[in-house]
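Renewal narrative, Specific Aim 1. Our central claim is that a sequence can be written position by position from structural information alone. The example that follows is taken directly from our test logs and has not been curated for this report. It begins with the structure tokens describing the chain, in the order in which they were read.
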């Protein structure tokens, strides 16, 4: 019994169409595989230019993930990963709710500023978009 072409494509390690046609003659091979197309992309979806930070704490990347299953000890369902662009140092904040993100970012920014003595200028969220923040916005 011959399996569906997309199953064969995945099962055999996603070879090209010519290889699949030789391996399984007579099976109609689909022309498009979304996973293969994504893997062949050369450009990132973000089109803006973002310069690398020239000092610790200038640019921070944030990534919020969850809902974690099963929840962590203490009930944390989400985690926020904050990465300093200059040093690549990462900090993880376990959170009970997504709405705790603002407080975690404020805490991190204050720690970075005390440690390095310079102000966080750019916060890049997990969509790759930079957000320039004024000091009073972070303090809210």
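The sequence written for that structure reads:
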């Amino acid at each position: 019994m011959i399996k569906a072409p997309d199953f064969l494509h995945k099962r055999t390690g996603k070879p090209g169409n010519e290889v699949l046609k030789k391996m399984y003659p007579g099976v109609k091979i689909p022309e498009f595989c979304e996973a293969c197309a994504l893997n062949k992309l050369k450009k990132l979806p973000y089109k803006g230019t973002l310069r690398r930070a020239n000092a610790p704490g200038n640019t921070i990347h944030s990534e919020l993930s969850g809902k974690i299953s099963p929840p962590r000890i203490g009930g944390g369902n989400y985690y926020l990963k904050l990465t300093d662009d200059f040093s690549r140092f990462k900090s993880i904040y376990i959170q009970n709710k997504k709405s705790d993100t603002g407080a975690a970012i404020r805490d991190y920014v204050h720690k970075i500023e005390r440690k390095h003595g310079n102000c966080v200028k750019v916060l890049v969220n997990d969509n790759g978009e930079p957000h320039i923040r004024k000091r009073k916005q972070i303090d809210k």
